[in-house]
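Side project, low priority. Logging it here so it doesn't get lost.
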Amino acid sequence: MKLLSGQPLALSFHRQGPVARVAFADRRAQLEWDAAVVAAGLRVSPLHYPPEPGLHGARAAGFDGLHGFLADSLPEGWGALLMRRRLHRMGIDFGNLSPLERLALVGDHGRGALIFAPATTPPPDDHAIDLDMLAAESRAILQGRGEGLSDLLADLGGASGGARPKVHVGFGSDGTISAGDGELPADHAAWIVKFPAAADPVDIGPLERAYATMATAAG
């Protein structure tokens, strides 16, 4: 899980070429755009980090010294909880990892367009996906009883943001379920399946559906 001292992290887009590389100096991330990004004028973060040659230091020490758009790639809430528990089970202290090492854990399993290399993401679990089992395990973790975190739950929810438990899966027209943490089969649609949080009422599902319908109607 540890990167070599001074080793930069390479950034790229899914199915596209390199975007930039980033390293730390004086507790701040330093970003250098790829020459192709500069030549094309590709504005990945146009407000603060324009596509110009040279180093672009993070503007502030917030976000653990990362550039804001890079910090957005890190899991938070539920995803961070799963990542901490999985690493603890592997004998790794999440608190001892640098911000770049945490991005390396995201690898190509993040929820955004960026992927990070070298990736140190633990290998996936190939077990069948049982949503009822994952819901029960999520509930146990929220109640402080989830000592045996499964790799499957960590794989499917470990890159998530937000506080409510969730997994990323794909649903096929034949009812099959696939892992949604990478490329889905051609006939599978990507879904985020949310599970109730500890303080949620029993009818939280219909309530969220109603809110989603109202938001759609409001444009």
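Brief comment: The mean pLDDT is 83.
Revisit when time allows.
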